[in-house]
Write a structure and sequence with these properties.
The structure holds two protein chains of two kinds.
Chain A lengths: L4 E3 L2 E3 L3 E4 L9 H8 L3 E5 L21 E5 L6 H13 L5 E4 L12 H13 L3 E6 L3 H10 L5 E2 L13 H10 L5 E3 L5 H10 L3 E4 L1 H4 L4 H21 L16 H8 L1
Parallel strand pairs in A: 3-4, 3-10, 4-5, 6-7, 7-8, 9-10
Antiparallel strand pairs in A: 1-2
Helix pairs in contact in A: 1-8, 2-3, 3-4, 6-8
Chain B lengths: L2 H6 L6 H7 L2 H8 L6 H7 L8 H16 L2 E11 L5 E2 L17 H12 L5 E6 L8 H11 L5 E5 L5 H10 L3 E7 L3 H7 E3 L5 H5 L1 H8 L3 E6 L6 H18 L4 E5 L18 H14 L4 E4 L5 H11 L2 E3 L27 H10 L3 E3 L7
Parallel strand pairs in B: 1-3, 1-10, 1-11, 3-4, 4-5, 5-7, 7-8, 8-9, 9-10
Antiparallel strand pairs in B: 2-6
Helix pairs in contact in B: 4-13, 5-13, 6-7, 7-8, 8-11, 12-13, 13-14
Chain lengths: ~260, ~375
């Protein structure tokens, strides 16, 4: 059976989504994307320098990739909507990752403004992927508003602290029908694998790859981990037992009695 | 509540006594903490911390990488006018200095904009002296409307204004405010600001907050290092940034660390700030507020700037000129101070890439 992630009507094989910020140079980005095999790549519209061949990050993203412009810098729904419209008008496609952040200290998303922006943009035909603090009621509202996926954070952006919100994400995976993509906080490939084993549909990684000693190698490591985690999820892990299975069971005599 | 209330909590505080009690072990203990409070920040600014700069630098570097990655936002200053009514003993624009004064016409602003934009820069910082007669708010707004055709982000570093005036400039296209307190010590402030409206300490102190309230996206503060004991001024700068960040979490805050430079009038720094002191200030600020932007201007020489990058710098000026009309006009007004890093934008771009940093020409998209 083929295992594809369907987002906004597109079939996606590779479940590692990549961010393009924080890299030592834009020139390294094509190799990072190639080695990771990522098909969906996000970039902050605020950083896209449309006037410069050399500095325009879009020129470093291979043609086959799905562009996922994000609304970094938006402080409310209205600003996020305006940024999304600018991105579409500039030729970045219909996909948008909504990021509404009013808190520069922890960079935590504003769920309420995010819902509003999602409602507006989904109505306008965007494929909306909202970044959010994991909360079941908010996720339901986002789903009802037409979000193509819901993107809860594992830990604050750039913190590399892993799946701190594990239990909340688990609930979203169980209860929400649209794909759950873990975005932000994943610091190590093992954590990406864990998210996938739990049943996340995909993960989005930026800081952990961009600030690694060898970003290209780390991108590949993440890609492998995401595949491994996904396969483990599909395989269905064996039962975990609290105690080892004793080779001389204490209740074995019961079976012996029956057999006799 | 105003930041003045925070400052007044430290009236009479025995800084020297505090610093004298700090041992190297205290610094190591603070470095092990997940976050620093005010006292920890002051520990990081102590003379004892000078012996632990490398350990501080390692942690500051890691935090910067985590929060900002290897990105460096570039900008350049554009001086609109050097008219000034203030008599400030440390500044080249001092009203008593006999020099050629000039205010750019809108056509000249456009010529300057074109010259700067041709280098690829998208972020511009507009500067003037303080003369509401020569440089009224309406004039600045007019210049900004010209500049927005060429730049993605426009900051102002002008005289302190009313909240409503900041709103007018935001409406015209300004998104960020830079204003330095120069020194947080009221007595020193009064002494070096000999005459003029700038003597009003508290009006200036509260200007960044008025900017935040008016809706500035980014606010950059700082002290002019060399006017006063740098440990105290760095401490209050950090507290000021923390105060603003707590109250206006939607604003991107950053701090500059300008050291006094040679200028017309030659006022020697009262408290020289050595390279190692500058490093300590940057590291202490980064450790105190990990997400704080740190801005480094061309006041510093090229070799030093390059070495300060990994310690926590997130924004640098490039290809700067402090003369009015210095980018494209023949008839230039006298500059505010002499710059030390004279590399052009392309050279700074190369230097950054060579050190594993991505020069970011555009970090905002106006809408």
């Amino acid at each position: 059976m083929e295992d594809k992630l369907v987002l906004g009507g597109r079939e996606i094989d590779n479940r590692l989504l990549l961010g393009t910020g924080k890299f030592p140079s834009k020139a390294i980005i094509p190799e990072v994307i190639k080695r990771s095999g990522s098909q969906v790549v996000t970039m902050a519209l605020r950083r896209v320098d449309f006037d410069s061949q050399q500095e325009n990050v879009l020129n470093y993203i291979p043609k086959g990739c799905i562009l996922l412009p994000n609304t970094s810098g938006a402080r409310n729904a209205e600003e996020a909507v305006r940024i999304a419209r600018i991105a579409r008008a500039a030729g970045c496609g219909d996909w948008v990752k909504i990021e509404v952040i009013t808190d520069n200290k922890y960079l935590l998303p504003d769920n309420y403004e995010t819902i509003t922006a999602t409602e507006i943009l989904a109505r306008e035909g965007f494929v909306v992927l909202p970044y959010m603090s994991p909360d079941l009621m908010v996720a339901k509202r986002l789903q009802d508003a037409g979000a193509a996926a819901v993107m809860p954070l594992g830990a604050p952006i750039g913190s590399n602290r892993g799946l701190k919100t594990r239990e909340l994400i688990r609930i979203l995976i169980d209860e929400i029908e649209v794909p759950i993509i873990v975005d932000a906080g994943i610091g190590k490939p093992s954590e990406a694998a864990e998210a996938m084993e739990m049943g996340a549909a995909a993960v989005l990684v930026n800081t952990a790859i961009a600030t690694a000693g060898d970003p290209v190698l780390m991108a590949e490591a993440f890609s492998l981990a995401v595949k491994a985690g996904r396969q483990a999820y599909l395989a269905g892990p064996g039962l975990t037992r609290e105690y080892a299975e004793a080779s001389s069971p204490l209740t074995g005599f019961l079976r012996e009695v029956q057999e006799a | 509540m105003s930041f003045a209330n925070v400052c007044s909590q430290f009236k009479g505080f025995d800084f020297d006594g505090f610093f004298n009690r700090i041992q190297p072990d205290d610094i190591i203990k603070v470095l092990g903490k997940p976050g620093l409070d005010r006292t920890d920040f002051l520990v990081m600014l102590s003379p004892a911390a000078e012996g632990v700069l490398e350990e501080m630098a390692q942690k500051a570097h890691r935090l910067t990488l985590q929060h900002f990655g290897r990105a460096m936002v570039l900008y350049t200053p554009l001086y609109l006018s050097n008219y000034c009514v203030n008599v400030c003993s440390y500044c080249g624009f001092n009203a008593r200095n006999r020099m050629y004064r000039k205010t750019l016409t809108l056509d000249e602003v456009e010529a300057e904009a074109r010259a700067i934009a041709s280098t690829g820069l998208k972020h511009i910082l507009v500067l003037t002296g303080e003369s509401r007669r020569h440089v009224p708010v309406s004039y600045i707004a007019g210049c900004v409307r010209v500049l927005r055709r060429y730049f993605a982000s426009i900051g102002i570093e002008v005289y302190p204004m009313e909240e409503e005036e900041y709103r007018v400039l935001i409406q015209a296209g300004v998104d960020s405010l830079t204003i330095y307190q120069e020194t947080y010590d009221e007595e020193v402030y009064d002494r070096v600001h000999v005459k003029g409206p700038k003597k009003h300490y508290r009006y200036r102190l509260e200007a960044p907050e008025r900017g935040c309230r008016a809706g500035m996206r980014a606010v950059n503060i700082g002290a002019l290092l060399g006017l006063n004991d740098w440990r105290r001024d760095a401490f209050f700068t950090g507290l000021h940034a923390a105060y603003l960040q707590d109250r206006y979490p939607e604003v991107e805050l950053s701090v500059s660390v300008p050291r006094l430079r040679p200028h017309l009038g030659n006022f020697p720094p009262l408290y020289p700030v050595l390279d190692k002191n500058l490093v300590q200030i940057l590291l202490a600020l980064r450790l105190f507020i990990p997400r704080l932007g740190l801005t480094l201007s061309t006041r510093e020489r090229a070799e030093l700037r390059d070495r300060l990058i990994p310690l926590g710098i997130t924004r640098m000026s490039a290809g700067s000129c402090t003369k009015v009309g210095g980018y494209a006009i023949q008839d230039t007004g006298h500059g505010q101070f002499d710059i030390a890093d004279t590399r052009n934008v392309a050279e700074i771009r190369e230097a950054l890439l060579g050190r594993g940093y991505d020069p970011v020409f555009k970090d905002w998209h106006p809408f």
